[in-house]
Structures are given as structure tokens and as C-alpha cells.
Amino acid sequence: MSTTLRYPIAAVSRLTGLQLDTIRAWERRYGAVVPERGPRGRVYTDAQVQRLRLLAALVAQGHTIGQVAALPTPRLEELLYRSTPPAALSVEQPAAARQAIGPVLEAIERFDYATVERELARVSALFAPRDFVYDIVLPLMREVGERWHQGTLSIAQEHMASAILHGVMGTLVRLHAAPPTASRLLFASPEGEQHEFGLLAAAMLAAAAGLGVVYLGPSLPAGEIATAALDSGALAVVLAVTGGAESTPARVAEVRQALAPRVELWVGGRDAAGFPGTPGSRRRVVPIGSFEEFERQLKRIGGR
What we know:
By secondary structure, the chain is an alpha/beta fold. Helix content is 57%, strand content 13%. Helix 1 (9-16) crosses helix 7 and helix 3 packs across helix 5 (73-82).
């Protein structure tokens, strides 16, 4: 039995930033996608959602839908992510990112859940996955955190932003699924570690690099992480830590000891350098102190 997710058209509208009438028109006039018919109407696959996101981004860049609707998805990706000169990207994207983050922050202040969700879905379609992480996700969460510390955003507002961004990022990880032959990474946090945005951002970068992603999330016992790594065939476990809890070093050690010797343990976070491997151990422990270092490790194991 297939476990492929199917999205109703209202969900597709939120994920792509496209109006319902636009989606219907692109289907009817241009055959952009051909959804299935479910008991309650149109339903779309992850691949179709991603195709609509690409089309929306290309139209926003100035292409007409008639020019691009019939192109195969790999060609759409090439047009969007590879045809723009790097010099132009380096100049234009930071300004575009600043303009995109502003409305999201304003909607967070108003507790406008629908607008935050819609704006993040729309922006995620306009940026390549790596740029979305660096230019949108990380600056947004940094700004939300600073405003929370300053007292201008409440805990409830911070939690709302976290929940919505979690959903958007999770969808992006699924949409950029790697081929079965790609190396796999398992993403988790040790028991007691509840923060996961760095983990989500890392998972998105791995997916964008063409690697397989097994995302378990925060606060998992060492045995569960080790079993999942073995069952999924993961080459490495990416463990996110904050170092704030006294028990964290012991939890990391538990994960290290529970993993099979062939599985690398990548420990990421601001205190990652404080978790070195045991001298003489066959278990390779890689401290990851920045996303740039994380991407270097991705390339080492075959990421693009």
C-alpha cells in the first residue's frame, strides 16, 4: 500500500502561495499538473506541489506560465536555480530576503497564523533550498529570538513561529527527497534537548545537497537513535545539542556508545567542540560548530 502523501487544493495553495483560481487555471489551460480525484476533490502529490512551487517562482521572475508550464521538472529547476548568474544572486537575494522577512515578523506580532504560514510557503518557493535556509530561516529565527529576549515578542508568539516554520521546513525536506542510492543522514537530538531549528535547517541543507534525510526530531533516547540509524542504513547521525543541560554530555556519550562502529556521529551546536570522540574509539565523532562546517562534511560524504 502506497504511503505517498496527498494534499487537497487548499493545502497546496498555502504551500505554494498560489490562489485557488490560479492553480485551477494552470491545470485547465496549460496542463501544468494533473491532480488525482479524491473523495473530496482534487488531491496533489509532493512532486506536483514542488512543480507548482517552481512554476510560481519562475512566473515571479518574469516568465509567462505559457512558456514554462510544459517543461519537465528538471528543466524548471535548472531555469530557477542554475541559470541566474552567481553575481546577480549575491547582490539581489539579501535585499529580497529582508523584504520577505518583514511581513512575516509583522504577522507574528499580530498572531496572524494564516499569514505567517502563507508568506513562508510563498517565500520558500522563490528561493533555492540552500538560500531559503541561510537567507530566510536562520535570520528569521535569530530575529524572533532577539525580540523574545528583549520582551517585544511573547513566548506564545515565539512558539507560533516555531510551529509554522517546522511545518514548512518538514515539507521542504520531503519535496527534495534524494534517490534511493544516496547516502543517508539521521537527524535527532538527545534526550532532554528540545530545541530543533538548527536540526531542521541542517536537514534542509542535507536534502538540498542531494543526500537522504531521516528526521526524528528532538529529545530521543540513545537506544532509539541507534536502532533507527541501523534500520535506516544511515552513514552518520547528526545530533543537535545546546550544551545548556548538565546531563547533555552524558546523553551524547550514550548515543556514541549505542551506535554501530561504522556510523559516524556528527555533534552540532555552539558547544559542539566540547564533545570529542573517545581516544582509540572506532566510532568517528565529528564536531560541527557552524553550518559552513556542516556543508563541508556533506561534500565529504558525497553531497553536492
